[in-house]
Design a protein that fits this description.
alpha/beta, 6-stranded mixed β-sheet, 12 helices, about 20% strand, elongated
């Protein structure tokens, strides 16, 4: 495997490309030497938020709590899937010398250069999956999809006699997420009684997008047994099923992200919504906020962080909900934190040329 080399130092101001070839990072060393705090940047953390889906609201909750705990000013800008607005906000933040930015967008390549410019200014940049970033957060995507698919397969065999008509609501248009949906296809293809009647990517990835897409699917396939995808779109699919009276207690609807509404459905017991794979957005949001503050104080932080997938059940949901409300307590307890997060690599202001600028995943060796 080819490794990129990146000199450290002042070249970041001239536009260092970062690490552009795939690299396997070692485990994060929390005791790595500190370096220089970024000069002339404000102690402010801003979240450029793609939209108001609950997963991102969780990130906002964690970030705001960490900022409060570390004495950072905190703000967020919700761009409502407007890529041009997101890029413009990033340029404004760079010009105003904001010290830390978290950026999400429905079109990651379109804002990548604006994120690079923030990195070149010396600021902390965190992203959720796509590069570039000084701290890139991802989930082991294939493993995440497999955890959900395995739960669906157990249910299909136990409750549906091994037969099911399945809808996959994918995000294959975002290459960083496509492994989770490949895991779904790989698992379901092993069941001869399963037919995938729709394999489609809703746009946008929201409850409204899932509702509209599922309405279209139901025109040709009114009897559906299983729906899998991100929580936001699967919740939209559930709304569509209920609107036409096609929801049943024996259906298996399952999502990824552990969104509060999905959790509420699972807790009912009688809902078609049977599973959600937690990516604990407020917990990793809190960690990102802590590392943003560390960066501004000249400390060494991880280059990449895994969000570990956890299958939520009626038995463990109460503890999970408590962790989402109080992510500071999770972060302060190493055992609890390590059940949600795993960290890799080291970077600080002095070595900022080594920012991640390739689609990092712990699953790729």
């Amino acid at each position: 495997m080819a490794l990129a080399t990146c000199p450290a130092g002042a070249n970041a101001q001239q536009g260092s490309p970062g690490i552009t070839l795939r690299r396997v990072f070692p485990a994060f060393d929390p005791n790595a030497p500190a370096c220089t705090p970024p000069p002339d940047l404000r102690r402010e953390l801003t979240f450029v938020q793609e939209n108001e889906r609950e997963f991102l609201q969780g990130v906002d909750h964690g970030l705001s709590q960490a900022a409060k705990d570390r004495g950072l000013e905190y703000s967020k800008v919700v761009v409502e899937n407007d890529v041009a607005k997101a890029a413009e906000q990033l340029r404004l933040l760079r010009a105003s010398k904001v010290g830390a930015v978290i950026g999400t967008s429905s079109d990651a390549p379109a804002i990548s250069h604006a994120l690079q410019e923030v990195i070149w200014s010396g600021a902390f940049v965190g992203t959720v999956m796509p590069p570039p970033a000084t701290l890139l957060v991802n989930a082991p995507q294939y493993a995440t999809g497999k955890v959900l698919t395995d739960a669906a397969i157990v249910y299909i065999n136990a409750k549906l006699g091994g037969k099911a008509r399945v809808v996959l609501l994918t995000q294959d248009t975002m290459q960083y997420l496509s492994p989770r949906f490949q895991a779904m296809r790989d698992g379901l293809d092993k069941l001869p009684g399963v037919t995938i009647v729709a394999d489609i990517a809703p746009r946008p990835v929201s409850k409204e997008g899932g509702f509209a897409t599922m309405n279209t699917v139901l025109l040709a396939n009114p009897n559906i047994d299983v729906v899998l995808g991100a929580d936001a779109v699967v919740l939209g699919a559930l709304k569509a099923l209920r609107a036409v009276g096609k929801d049943r207690p024996d259906q298996f609807l399952g999502g990824i992200d552990g969104e509060p509404e999905a959790v509420s459905e699972i807790k009912k017991g009688s809902s078609p919504y049977k599973a959600s794979i937690s990516l604990a957005s407020s917990v990793f949001g809190y960690a990102m906020g802590q590392f943003a503050a560390d960066w501004l104080e000249g400390k060494s932080i991880p280059q990449a962080m895994d969000i570990l997938p956890i299958a939520l059940t009626r038995e463990n949901i109460t503890k999970y909900e408590a962790d989402l409300v109080n992510p500071a307590a999770v972060y302060a307890d190493p055992d609890r934190r390590n059940s949600y997060l795993k960290m890799y690599g080291n970077i600080c202001y002095d070595t900022r040329d080594g920012y991640v600028n390739f689609p990092w995943s712990s699953e790729q060796k």
